[in-house]
Amino acid sequence: MTDLDALRGRLSGTQRAFVGALWDFYRGHNQWVPSRIVHQHFGKAAAGAQLAELGPSLVQAYRDDGKEYYRLTFLGVLLTDQGVQAEGLLVRYLEYVRDRYRSDSRVEWVSSQEVEAALRLPAEQSRLLRQLVRLSHWWGGGSAFGEREWIVGVPVDVDDLVGEADLQRYVRDHVLRHFPIQARAAAAPGADDTSGHPFWFVADTALRERLAMDWHEAQDVCHVLGWKSCVILCGGILEALLSDALRRAQAGAGRGSTALPQLVAAAVERRLIREDSLRPSPALQAFRTLIHPGRPQRKTVVLGRTDAEAALDTVRSCLRQLAATTPRPSRPAGH
Predict the structure, then answer these.
(1) Fewest CB atoms within 10 A around its CB: which of 101, 109, 205, 237?
(2) Which residues make Cβ contacts (< 8 Å) with residue 274, sequence separation at least 6?
(3) d(CA 245, CA 272)
(4) How do residues 268-310 score in pLDDT, each as one tens digit?
(5) pTM of the predicted structure, to 2 decimals
(6) Which domains does the chain have, with CATH numbers?
């Protein structure tokens, strides 16, 4: 596992300026920055290059309500110049929640007023903590984030916090596990990957953006222990990815018309993925039965962390293999 301090040290000055600008905008506006503003400031090509270099574990482009934005993952936030301060503040908050839960296991809610008093936070620090708690998803059972005051449920993993003496280590392990930094294969000279998009090989723009949003959500819900939602989202992503790849290979498999195991078998037959390299778990194979609570099942399916993390790993493996078997678009002459 890569150390957080080492990751901070690996960022170039240009990369620090890029992630810093995205974070500064969010800090000032409580929303992520529209793409047009990023492009005006850095240039569209330069922004695309930063997106590719930093990767989706740190920075992502996304579409919401017809508009395009850039956002940092929570790991990306921790790698900004304010990341050390942000990390320390979040650790202090979690220590407060842990200690309060130890003294009274019935506690369900935490308010900004009590946190400000306990940690002696000025208004600006409280506002920063509000943003960190919201982005990190270290809350559960509901939330209300006002402009000045906020109240959240205690974190869903509060029982794990109780047994932790070193919450800085816990935060680092948790974040780095949730946003794994994958080594990039050495690109051939002249190879072009300016989008940094994990689904770059999907030609349909609308499908590509929907998949990116579902992928981001799948990782988010896993982070807050939403095992079932994570498996369902991953199943839909895999089904769409394999159906799209088979259509491009003219294998005649329509999206949604074939069960996931059959799509995997067809992709292996077309050599889009390696044999035995993609083995969806039983829960993932049956993800459609999880969508409809009234649909009869042979037995009750109880999902846990292992199922969700296995589903995420299966999507990652599928992404790597389909990207490797898809020719990259050639670069225009003169670029």
Answers:
(1) 205
(2) 268, 321
(3) 8
(4) 988 888 887 888 888 898 888 887 665 555 555 678 888 988 8
(5) 0.64
(6) 4-77 (1.10.10), 83-178 (1.10.10), 205-324 (1.20.120)
